[in-house]
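Problem 3 from the worked examples.
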Amino acid sequence: MFSENEIATLVEIPEIRKVTLEAKQRFIEGEVSMLEITNHDFLSLIMMTPAIGVALANGSISLFEELALNKMARKMSKGGYFMKVDPVAHAMNYLIKNYMNWEQPFFEVIKQCMDHTFNKEQLLSMKSSDMVDPVQRFARDLMTVPYIFVRFLSTVILNDESDIVEQRSISKVEYEKILDIGEKLGLYDMPVFDSFCRTFEVK
């Protein structure tokens, strides 16, 4: 997933800073007028939106998922919150309550972040590896894509820091949500996204 420094770099890109600020103003007006959160931390919240969507796919967020999301929030936030309430985790509570209202607007910000950091058309034209084993195939495909794309993929889908190249067990509804996220973010037709999805073992 993205680190604090990577979020700091992203939010300094003028186009990304602009859409982040616009989304933040709408969120504060629509959810909680007293929310104090920096642009950096708000972009971190936006980056967590897909992972929250996957966690909510079963209808509610388990304690394990909540802990993982809070850990993700602390990793990307501006730091200094070890003994305090993390502003990203605090804002996340409002996002979870009204997730359906904010999913699409926040996904649009993520798409803007992608558009200003890597070439989607190039990834759409890449061919996938011919390896039979799905994990080996995905590992090989990752070697042909930009590093920033790997960081986006690990952040917007996975909410842990484990190796992105491994087989994971996942429920059918969670898997369907991942496919939905891929479609909404414009990743669905990318061969590397397809090989990534094949690494999941659907229960």
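Problem 4, a separate protein:
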Amino acid sequence: MTTPSSTTTAPARFLLLGDSHAGPIARAATAAGLPFVGGPVGSGRDFNVGFFDVHDDGLVFRDAAVEERHRGFLADLAVPDIGRLTIPLVSTFGLSAHFFATTGNWRIYRDGDGAFPAGFLSSGLFDDIVRAMARDALAFHRHALGLGLRVLAVLPPQRVPGMSDPLVFMAAQETIRRALVALGVEIVDLRARVTDGTGRQRAAFCEPDDPIHGNLAFGRLIVADLLARGL
């Protein structure tokens, strides 16, 4: 799910950069004939800490394969750096909350009965830990906003794999959402439309035989939301 997706010959409406959760967005936009450039460029775990640098001539991804895809997207748009974009940036970086919620990461914070202390998941300490885990994803969005871009971030499918704690997933996602909103990022949040009474993604919006990803129907809802926002 890291194959870049691109646009028709019509002017692109947005640049899509993200992890595998960007895949359904790319497929849905392509199916709808919506011109865009970009797509997934790697795994979500690779876009939280230490994945980019900013030099005098612009932003560079540290991973050579990711940088090659990034440069290809910019070439399609005929710009040398994302700071020269005239279209919005749509991102999924830092929003794969199941990585933050890996159960083993949180054992030391549990009481003897295995539960978290009251208020821990809404505490400043928890927020600080999660923001540290996602510090460069937040820095990436801050950099893009500082360049004057319109930046939209898409919340992930509400799916929690077996390796992750559902309570931590929800709390970590909320921490990142609040942090992005405070920066000025627009949040694409479809939870009210795609989840059941437990807050989990309904099967109609899940990729079959896959514990994490949304499907094309989920991507279509995201694309519809982007269009409603004027993209």
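Solution to problem 4. Helices lie at 22-32, 64-77, 97-100, 124-133, 135-146, 166-183, 191-194, 216-228. The longest strand covers residues 15-18.
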